[in-house]
Amino acid sequence: MLWEEHVSAPKKTRPSLSAAVRRALRGAVGLWPLHEAKSKVVLGRHVPALRRFEDAEVTRLGDLLGPLPTALVTTVIPTYRRPGLLPAAVESALAQTVDDHLVIVVDDGGGLPPLPSDPRLVAVGLSRNTKVVGLVRNVGIRLTASPYLAFLDDDNTWHPDHLEISLAALREGADLTYTAVERHHSDGTVFDVLSQPFDRKAMVDGDSFVDTNGLVLRRDPQVLYSRLPRTKVTMPKEDWEFIHRASRTRVVRHIPQATVRYLINRDSYYTKWE
Fold first, then answer.
1. Is residue 147 part of a domain?
2. Does residue 197 sit within a domain?
3. Exposed/middle/buried for 57, CB within 10 Å: 0-12, 13-18, 19+?
4. In 133-235, where do the E strands start and end?
5. Does any domain span residue 271?
């Protein structure tokens, strides 16, 4: 008799306890906070050394630069090997209708291309590549002292009124604002417009609807990004973690006007696009 004749149909089994616990935790906490907790467990051991490097770079670059010009708002642009796209990002930041503005470009050890000559622009380079965009942004934050902060990635651009619109909302009582984001392909065609009123509870499970490039917020000592060394596939991204944490104690206002042109860049160093 063939052995197959002795094999009974598979029995239905109960879900494992671990699966049940995971479902309960997701219902109580949310998907992305659970992923963030896992990332901290897996990657957290690298953070002390990265923090020491960040501190050392802030000291080194601060000594090199000396006192920077004061400004109402500072825009931090992290970059890594984007010579073809970075100048356009910088030019869009310098073209803002708000003149009381400092732009600081922080290169993650890849080398800087020629940039516009403007007294409002400061460009610095880290002594080595870290692959940690949060750390790169933190260096720019910590080297400056403006009461307001904005962020722009090196492959995106702003409409000229981005800061003007955002600062107006901050003066009306918001602590953190984010504008709508027009996402487009490399050929210029529009993919979609990311625009959704803020709902902190909706952030824990759904797609991220707040993009760092649309953020402008008041500075305080807690305005620093995660130093976890995330890769393209690490979830959630540091942008989600920063916004989720910052919104815990701040008044957040969504501005439905699209002021950011966001490139769906399949060559992105930090973002994995399907």
1. yes
2. yes
3. buried
4. 148-151, 157-158, 176-184, 190-194, 215-218
5. no
Distance CA 233, CA 152 (A): 21
**Pairwise pLDDT comparison (62 vs 16), residue with the higher score:** 62
Domain containing 253 — which CATH number? Answer: 3.90.550.10
Given a contact cutoff of 8 angstroms between Cβ atoms, the answer to whether 104 and 74 are in contact is: yes
Backbone φ and ψ for 215, nearest 5 degrees, come out as -80, 140
Give the C-alpha distances (Å, rounded to integers) separating 61 from 79, 142, 240, 268.
Answer: 16, 10, 28, 26
The boundaries of the domain holding residue 211 are 40-263
Residue 259 lies in a domain: yes
Tokens describing residue 15:
């879900």
Whole-number Å distance between alpha carbons of 213 and 197? 16
Tokens describing residue 53: 């490097």
pLDDT at 7: 41
Indicate the pTM of the whole model. 0.89
pLDDT for the residue numbered 265: 74
Looking at the structure of the chain, the number of domains it has is: 1
| Nearest Cα to Cα of residue 265 among 184, 182, 150 | 184
